[in-house]
Structure formats: structure tokens, C-alpha cells
Amino acid sequence: MKTIHIKSTSAHKMITDLQQHLGGEISSVNQESVLTLNNDLAVGTISGISVKKSITYIAFNVVFNQDLTLVNTILKSSPIYFTYCSEGHVEHSFSVEGKTNTLDAFQTAIIRSAETVNNVYHFKKDIPFNFSTIVVSTDDVSLEKNELNAKLNQIFSTPNPGEHFAYFGSYNLKISEKIKQLEAINQLGVVRRLLIESTVQTILALEIQQHTDDLEHANNQFGSLNKDEMEMIKDLSTFITNYPEKQYTLKYLSSKSGLSPSKLQEGFKLLHDRTVTDFIRNVRVETAENLIKTTDLNISEIVYTVGLTSRSYFSKIFKEKYNCSPKQYQDNQNTLAATA
Description:
- Helices cover 46% and strands 26% of the residues.
- By secondary structure, it is of the alpha+beta class.
- It folds into 2 domains: 2-220, Jelly Rolls (Sandwich), CATH 2.60.120; 234-339, Homeodomain-like (Arc Repressor Mutant, subunit A, Orthogonal Bundle), CATH 1.10.10.
- The protein has an 8-stranded antiparallel beta sheet with strand order 2-3-4-5-12-7-10-13, sandwiched between helices.
- Helix 4 (173-184) packs antiparallel against helix 5 (189-216) and helix 6 crosses helix 8 (261-272).
- The termini are far apart.
């Protein structure tokens, strides 16, 4: 087993510390650092970015070739770790020999140790990890200058300064989708920086909201869906997005997934805040909008391509979403292309 000590909440310093222990190569652009690993210790990437001076985002997309213990050494103060696991499962403890809690895939956790006590993450070998944490500094200088950090410091604390704060929440697929969006950002320069910052702050907001929701529904923390069923909802959503032209019914989706219609509806509401029908309709409209921008298909052909049969119905739902008719949208695209 390998043990690594990290003594900073700065993205670049954390990535540099990891490189000293794991090897690999670092690339750094605009306060974003990526450690690429392909050796006997690990394969994959570990990335970090300082969203603001006192907020850091660290993401592990990696397989370790031996058991690894990552120790976040607490120096001046005790930061707050807003943690999420998209793939695999991570063990957490306060101190190396402390009692461990498991963070499962699609689960949230908000962790803050008492001062001078380390935060420790335990990674098992040969398991693909997609694991991220937003580290919010709570040192006095940051709090004086940052109202958000001061508020978070107040919310996520315990009455006794010697106690730890540990919240392991319910499953949340919306955060997983946001992390996918973050990983898919391919723009460069200031645009990339702004997109990353806004997405990380959205993830932070979702984690805080999850904590609030769980407190309100403490007696039914995980709802009626288990982790495997939530993962099935996620896979089903991807299937519908990839094949919007299919004629979906609840009966067909229930048979394909093995989930009851009521669980399908519950899962889609949790992940997309939409019913199954609303999700399918929205996918078709968004696919159609992309086809109008990127192909020479006429409106009737696009209607058929996305699995609809009525052009008038398509025009109605398109206008509800984009505030103009498909024809107006297409004419505008053609005008832009002609003047480019």
C-alpha cells in the first residue's frame, strides 16, 4: 500500500505533490493542471483547477495499480470537502487509522475534519475511479474577503470545535451529468475558463442543495430506487438521447430496463426533473435544433429523423422551447451562414 500526503488546497500545488509520489507528466494552462499517468503505480489523469482563490476542484479519473491512501494534511485551518463519486467507491476516514465510511458511485459527501486532524481517502487497486472534490478554504483571510466561504463555514460546522462534520448523502445523478459536461468542455482560453468555473460552481450548488433536501427527507434518504436502478435510469437516458427516432412507450422502456413504470418516472424526475415523456420530447427538440444548424435537411425530413410524425406538433413544441418556429430558426441560420 502506498501513502501520499498532500499539504495544500492549491490546485497546482496538489497536482505537483501527487506527481512527486506517482510520477507522470503535468500540463498547465490558465490555472488548470492535469497530471497524466501511465506507469506501474497508476493509469489515467488527475486534474485540478483553482476556480477562485479559495475554491479548488480536483478530479481523479484513474486506476491505481496498488492500494493507495491519500492524506490531506490540515495545516492552518480545516477546509470543507464537497465530494462526489461518479464511478467506483472510495473509503474515507478522519486520520489514517480512523473508522472508514464508504462513498458509493453517484453519492455525495460533505466532509470537514476537526482542526489538526487529517482527511484521508482510501483507494483500492484495479478499480476505475471517477472521483471529484471541491475544496473550499475556510482560513480567516479568505473568510474576510469572501461572503460565500463565510456562509459555508457557518453551515458546515459543528458546535464543538473538536468534532468532525461528515455527511454522506443520497444518490444524485444530476451531479454526474454536470461532471460529464465538465469533462466534455473542449473550448480553449478564456471561454474554457469561464465554462469550467460556472460548471464547478453549479456542481457545488447541487451538492449543497442535496444536503438541504436530505435533511428535509431524512426518513427516506434514498427514495425507492437503489444504486443499480439509478444507474439503469442513467443508461436509459443515454440510449434515448442516442436514438431519439425510436417510438418509445413506457411499456417498452419498462421491459428494456426491468424497472416498473412508477420507478421509471421517479428516476427521470430525480435525474432530469422531467417525466419520461417530457424527457423524450425535449431530446427530440434539442436534436432537431442541432440538425437545423448542422445539416441541409429540410424541416419535414428533420421531423421524421427525430421520431415525430406531425410537423405542426413539432413546430409547436419547438417554438415553446426556442421562442421561434423551426422555419424562422432555419432561415436565420442560413442568413448567418451567408454573411459569415
